[in-house]
Structure formats: C-alpha cells, structure tokens
Amino acid sequence: MDIYLPIAEVSVNWPLLVLLGATVGFVSGLFGIGGGFLMAPILIFLGIPPSVAVASQASHVVASSTSGVISYTSQKAVDYRMGGVMAAGGVIGALLGVELFRYLRLLGQADLAVALAYLLFLGAIGTLMLYESLGQILRRVRGEVVPHKERRRPLWLYGLPLKMRFPRSGLYISAIPPFALGAFAGVLSAIMGVGGGFILVPAMLYVLRMKAGVVVGTSLFQIIVVTAMTTILQAGRNQTVDIVLSTILLLGGVVGAQYGARLSGRFRAEELRAVLGLIVLLVGIQMGLELFVRPSDLFAFAPGVPE
C-alpha cells in the first residue's frame, strides 16, 4: 500500500496519509487553526524531508480551512472584512517568508530553522494557553466565582490611523494591528508550513478583543488566502511542493474539517483552549528534542561519507 513521492523521494503508506489528513483536518475545524503545526512534524517523523513537509502540507491547510469556513459561514460566524485585512498582510508576510526560506535553504540551514521555530513558538504559546485555560477550568470546578472584568481594549488600538469598522466583530479600530498580525502569520506560514491560527486566535481574542463567536471562522478565512499564496510561492521559488503528497493529504482533510467544525460548539471555550494548548506544547517539545537527541545513525546527516 506504499506510494512513491517524487519530490520527497521516499515511499509512504498512502492510507496512513489519508487518515492523517482527516485527523488533522478534524483538529483544524474544531479549533479554528490551519493544522499545519501538527501535520508538518508528523510528516517529518514519517521520513519526509522537513523542507518538503513544510511546503507540501500547505495545500492540505487550504483545503481543510476552506471546508471549515463553509461550515462557519452557514452559522454567520465569519468576519470577512477583518479576514480580508489580515489576509492582505499575510500575503506580504508570505512573500518575505518564502524568500527567507529560500535563503536558509541555500545556506543549508532550513531544517534547523524549522525545528527552532517549532520549539520556540509552539513551546511558548502552548504553555501560555494551557496555563490560562487550566486556571479557568480549576476555578469552575471549585465553584469559585470569578469577578467579571470589563474587556477593555488597549488604548493604542484607538490612537493609530486608518480606522475601519468591523461590524461583525464589534470593532472600530485601526487596520494596522490586524494587518501586522496577518503579516507575521504569513512569515510563519512560509517557514513553518502553518496557517498561523495558533497565534492569530489568541491575538484576536486578547489583543483585538473580537467577538469570540467570529474568531475561529475569521481565522480560517485568513489562513486560506495566506497558505494558498505560500503553496504557489514555495512551488515556484523553492520547488519543494510534492503534488502527490499534497493531493493525498487534502482528500482526508476536507472531510475531517467538516466534522470538527460541527463539534466545536459542543465544548466550553476553556476546555478547547486547554486541549489545543497541550497539543501545541507537546508538538513543540517533540520537535525541539530532535535538536538535542543523538541520532541513531550518525551518518544520516553526512551523505557521501565512506563507510
């Protein structure tokens, strides 16, 4: 049941890839993230070169995110204006990120950069999300009454120019902060093969103070544009997109995302954030361990050395 991947130059079990695509697609729809932060490490563990894994799974992120957005649109839970501003920044970030990725590949440091990025970003964000959400869960279990705090938005959001109205998000703020968030997510998309949802969702909630009901759908919409652009750029500039691998992954991703989106409303927000935080943290730690654990084959990174 193996299939040969021409760009990755390895053979893998294709039913396993379909199942992997469906599982990550389910996670994508459930949490409002692209799922790339989970897909890329698993592909690397399966023997796919990191540069190919990062670039090829971006199309899976596009497919699963599109499937999720369709579901959230039917629930009127997508702010397309906010998503458009973030996506515009994301395209600029993707252009910069792909060129940076190309430069790192020429230096032979692309794989190291991918591992470090996962360790730093996923480790830090996973820890913060897990700490915050577990605190809320414990207070609820103990029956503690948490005093209601007014969700004041940072004053600097109102002091910046280029103000826009985002009725569905309940905001009238400068377009610069969401544009900048999108640009940052675009850079991460190119280097890590992620949509950036694991950063955007918390930022949209705690920095921009958007309505919680539209955060997930809006994040997925932004991810579609950014990862689609990243896939095109990676294929054209770096030739690291394996079309066979991408096609197999997205077959399962489209189906999985639909089920994830349908189940997202059945869980408390803090419970979802706790699970997501734990997943993000574990993936970051696992990728980080690859930097410090002694490889079983010492010559794996030195092809051409005579035995």
How would you describe this structure to a colleague?
By secondary structure, the chain is mainly alpha-helical. Helices cover 70% and strands 5% of the residues. The protein has a two-stranded antiparallel sheet. The longest helix has 33 residues, at 110-142. It is globular.
User: What does the average pLDDT come to?
Assistant: 76
Kindly report the spatial arrangement of strands forming the biggest sheet. 1-2
What is the chain-wise order of helices and strands? EEHHHHHHHEEHHHHH
Radius of gyration: 20 Å
Please report the total strand number as a whole number.
Answer: 4
Stretches with pLDDT under 50, minimum 5 residues: 299-307
The major sheet is characterized as: 2 strands, antiparallel
Percent of sequence in beta strands: 5-15%
**Overall spatial form:** globular
The structural class is mainly alpha
Number of contiguous helices? 12
Helix content: over 70%
Topology:
Elements: E1 2-5, E2 10-13, H1 14-31, H2 36-45, H3 50-56, H4 58-74, H5 80-107, H6 110-142, H7 156-159, E3 163-166, E4 171-174, H8 176-192, H9 197-206, H10 212-238, H11 243-263, H12 269-292
Antiparallel strand pairs: 1-2, 3-4
Helix pairs in contact: 1-4, 1-11, 4-10, 4-11, 5-8, 5-10, 6-12, 8-9, 8-10, 9-10
